[in-house]
Fold this sequence. Notes:
single chain; alpha+beta; globular; LRAT_dom; LRAT
Amino acid sequence: MLDSLALLLEKTFLLAHFNFFSTAPPKPERCAKRREEGTYYFQRGDLLEVPRTLFTHFGIYLGDNKVAHLMPDILPVLTSNKSQIQKVVTNKRLLLGVIYKYASIRVDTVEDFAYGSPVLLNTMDTTLRRQPLAAEEVARRAEKLIGHIPYSLLWNNCEHFVTYCRYGTAVSLQTEQ
């Protein structure tokens, strides 16, 4: 019964964020871009975000142009072929991963993580009013969690992952709104 209720809440939450007829301008960017001439200037342990259609996607910069991020993905359920799984996650794979509640914390290049969107340095430090952990500790936490995990849009998403890594507490401001 509880699983059914959780599934219903997740689907309602997802549908509530579809804004088919909105004429409102997009939200102003609340993070500073750190990119010049195609080169990123992030430091190991930085919390990154990229705007998506419905939500903002988050990751932890690991250095060497790599980002750890939590992605729902159905393909690891269907195959163990690592070369297929490591390809950029399409929207179809993502949506089926959300429905099936299967995800992984994976490492991708900054470009694959961004998926065509601008990469922003997150300013959650002031929003959450919490002291971030040391940058190396943030990156180590992210690296330690790489692999397959259960997914929940409301209780275990990419924002929960990065806030746990950076602040020691998993929260999602997007799902609390």
